[in-house]
Amino acid sequence: MLTKRGNGLSRRDFIRIAGGTLATLGLSGALTPKLARALEKAAAGRPKVVWIHFASDTGCTESFIKSDHPSAGELVLDILSVDYHESIMAAAGKQADEVLAKAVAGKDYICVVEGGIPTVPGHGMIGGREMLDIAKEVCGNAKAVVAIGSCAVDGGVPAAKPNPSGIKGVGDALGMTVVNLPCCPVNPEWLVGTVVYVLTMGKLPELDKKGRPLMFYGRKIHDNCPRRTHYDGGRFVEQFGSKEEAAGYCLYKMGCKGPEAWSECPKTRWNSKESWCIEIGSPCLGCSENNWTDHFGPFYGKLADIALPYGDVTADKIGIGLAVVTGAAIAGHAVLKAVKGKGEDEKK
Ligand code: SF4
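A: This is the predicted complex of the input protein with iron/sulfur cluster.
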């Protein structure tokens, strides 16, 4: 019999959530019952989460509340105990400070950080306290820290040069190891997938050198891009509004940073899997990488020579190469036609 559990979710709910999460994690659907049981067990304890905001535009919270598998409502109300989240909790002012102090004293929570940390005194204050001091206390007492979005990972847009507030990512500002989930904003399914992984496996997922879970940042966008055949074939958009753009050609020459950006955007997609940047015609801006606003600017500037897997050839050279091959083919065809014509003339 399907019954509602104490936390408000039924067995069927957990199976549905597990199925959606496995798809996000890229794992077989055959594991659904196992994951559902593990998730149900973990949720029975309602693991505590403290979600703190620093220098950001709260875009990652907006992104998170659009998550589907499970929904943000299920995650916040039924699976986790989100004890503190400035944007969605009812408490404010002194009452909110008391809630945070009580949560931190327990030292038994996962800390989610949204936003970069100003390190210049007086440049980032909440309730009269330096953001840096709040971060030291809240992150220092957590069982694990997850930095979500580019701002929390490396300062993001607020840390673009000249960065007068000395804004840094959480790991850098506090000198501690954290799980980094970059992108601007974070993909909600990667955050939910990371949380579910930790809850069900009891450990952190495998991370790359930059602290990013390999399951979400293990491949380059370029390697999974649906426009890749156009790149390999030397077919590029050179102007917005052109017939090449309408044909869906590669956006490399319009500034696409996909060849240097590591993330599963092509697979996970965005807005309930509706679409993603390159699919709607925007070059990838490379927001999964550190210091992306300065490193990859200008946004529509072409990446310097990109080596291709089959040789040290650039996209420009491919275009030229194809032109030469095509020219040679046309010339060859013309010679063949001339020879054939000559033969036919001789026959006549
Ligand atoms: Fe896709 Fe960009 Fe690579 Fe072109 S350069 S194939 S648009 S990721």
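The first strand starts at residue 48 and ends at 53. Confidence is low (pLDDT under 50) at residues 1-6, 309-313, 319-348.
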